[in-house]
Amino acid sequence: MAPAAQTPVILRLGEQELTVSHPEKPLWPDAGITKLQYVQTLAQLAPYMLPHCENRYLTTIRHPEGVGGTSFYQKNAPQPTPSYVRTAMEGSIRYVVLDSLPALLWMGSLYALEFHVSCERIGEPLPDRWILDIDPSLEEEPRIMEAAAAVGELLHSLGLEAVPKTSGATGVQVVMPIVRGPTYDQLRSFGKFVSEYLAAKYPGLFTVARFKKERGTLIYLDYLQHHPGRTLAAPYTPRARPGAPVSTPLTWAEIGRNPKPTDFHLLNIVQRVNDRGDLIAQLQPQNLEAVLRQIKTL
C-alpha cells in the first residue's frame, strides 16, 4: 500500500509564503526530526546563523531523502529561484547569498541539510576573521578538545582571544573576529606560525602534513583552508550525520570539560543559543598588527 499523501504546510514569513511539502518526511530518522521540524528549527536559529552567512557565497549539501539517502553538493542557485532570494555571480556560478529568513527556510525546504559559506565576503578584499581548522585523522578522536585547548592557550599567550566551535562533524574550528587590515596572505602566515609552533611543541598530537597518508593518527592543523575560494561550515549549520549535530560555538571552559561534538545538535541548540547568545558575535574584533609584526622578525 502506498503511503498516505501528506498535506503541504504553508508558512507565512512577513509578506512571503513558503510551502513545505512532505512535512512529515523524516530527515534525521534516528533523532526523530521531520522536514517541518527542521524548517521550524532553522527559523529559530536564523538570528544567530544568518550574520555568519550574509554577503558570502553559499554551498549546500542537499539530501532529498534525508540522512542516509542520496546527497549532492549544490553551488548554483536552485531553479526556479524566488524573487526574495538574493544571488551573486562568481565566475560561471550563480550562488545563493543567505541573508534572509525566507531564503534560509526555502533552502531548508529543498532539503539543504548543511550550509557552507565562503571565507571571503563578497566585494570585500580584506578578511573580517581568522579561522584555524583542527581536523582529526580518526573518525573518533578523543583528543580533539585537548587539541583545541592547546590552540587557545597559544593564542591567549599572544594576547589574543578566539572562539572554538565544533565543525558539527569530527573537528573543531577556532574563529577569531579581527580588525580589518591584514590580508588573507598575512593571515595564512599567522596560521602557519601557530600550526608549526604547535606541531613542534606537541609532535605526538599535531601535524601540518597536507597529505592524509602522511598524517597517521595525528590531528591536522589546516591553516590553508581559510582563504578566498574555499568554504567552511557556517556557525550553527546542521550536519547530515546521525544525531543531527550542529556546528556550535563553545566557551574555553566547555572545551576544558572535554565534550563530544555530538553533544550539540538540532534538538538542544535552540535552547542553548537562547540562553547564551552567539559567542562569536560577543567577542570584540582582535587587532593582529602587533603579532604580525613580531612574526615577521622571527
TrEMBL record:
Alphabetical list of InterPro entries matching this protein: LigD_pol_dom (IPR014145), NHEJ_LigD (IPR052171)
Ranges that cross the membrane: none
Pfam families, per the entry: LigD_Prim-Pol
Domain DNA ligase D polymerase: 34-279
Protein name, entry field: DNA polymerase domain-containing protein
Taxonomic lineage: Bacteria, Bacillati, Bacillota, Bacilli, Bacillales
